[in-house]
Amino acid sequence: MASNNVNNVFAETLRRLRTERGLSQKKLGDLMFIDHSTVARWESGKRMPDAMMVTRLAGCLGVDANTLFDLAAQSDDTHNIIMVDDNEVILSHGVTVLGKVMSNATITGFIWPLEAIEYARVNRIDLAILDIALGLSSGLDLCRTLLEINPCTSVVFLTAYPDYALDAWKTEARGFLLKPLTPEGVREQLKKLHIRFLSEDTKT
Q1: Which strands, in side-by-side order, build the sheet including 154-159?
Q2: Residue-range domain boundaries for the chain
């Protein structure tokens, strides 16, 4: 009961801060590179953000992170999906597509590979969709690091260059998608991976 009370207080605080700043759930989600359904779950008290997401929230809302840390609690009862791409437009689009296909999962986007690694060290990552070319970094190296952290993570590479496929298959990645990311492509890849957390309304 106490946990539910904390969740409700956090939810009400987040909703108030967001509306005071004139942000919709979608706009806040876009700013944080997460799907708006994640924001909706936070504001309903069904989910709580982890430490990294609290820090992102504080930055987007312009508040002291400690204000939110005092209310937030860890929760790991849903699947965690990450996408890493150094192009903000592609990342935002991809997070939206993933949210539509897997509305029951927590979708989080990252521009910086090191931030994704930090997140993976404190969260169980079920599926990671990685751009191969990440500026000065490589999605291939990121794949290896994520699998060292959790060998059970399913890694799928996303790229605009089919020629990269050969190098990608030399890693322990389990899939390959070409840009732009589409709901149909994601669904097909999930079937190949035998991942069963498609939303009921997206299976057909």
Answers
A1: 106-110, 80-84, 127-131, 154-159, 175-178
A2: 2-69, 80-202
Matching residue, tokens 């801060």? 17
d(CA 96, CA 147): 25
- The yes-or-no verdict on residue 108 having pLDDT over 80 is yes
Q: Which CATH class is domain 80-202?
A: alpha beta
The torsion angles phi and psi of 180, rounded to 5 degrees, stand at -80, 150
Query: What is the secondary structure of 135-180 as a DSSP string?
Result: TTEEHHHHHHHHHHH-TT-EEEEEES-GGGHHHHHTTT--EEEESS
Least confident of 18-32, 64-78, 119-133, 151-165: 64-78
End-to-end CA distance of the chain: 38
- For residues 173 and 67, give the distance between their C-alpha atoms in angstroms, rounded to a whole number: 39
Q: Three-class SS string for 71-105? A: CCCCCCCCCEEEEECCCHHHHHHHHHHHHHHCCCC
C-beta of residue 149 within 8 angstroms of C-beta of residue 122: no
Global pTM value = 0.65
The per-residue pLDDT for 200 is: 42
CB 132 within 8 A of CB 164: yes
Does domain 2-69 correspond to CATH entry 3.40.47.10? no
Give the model's pLDDT for residue 7: 66
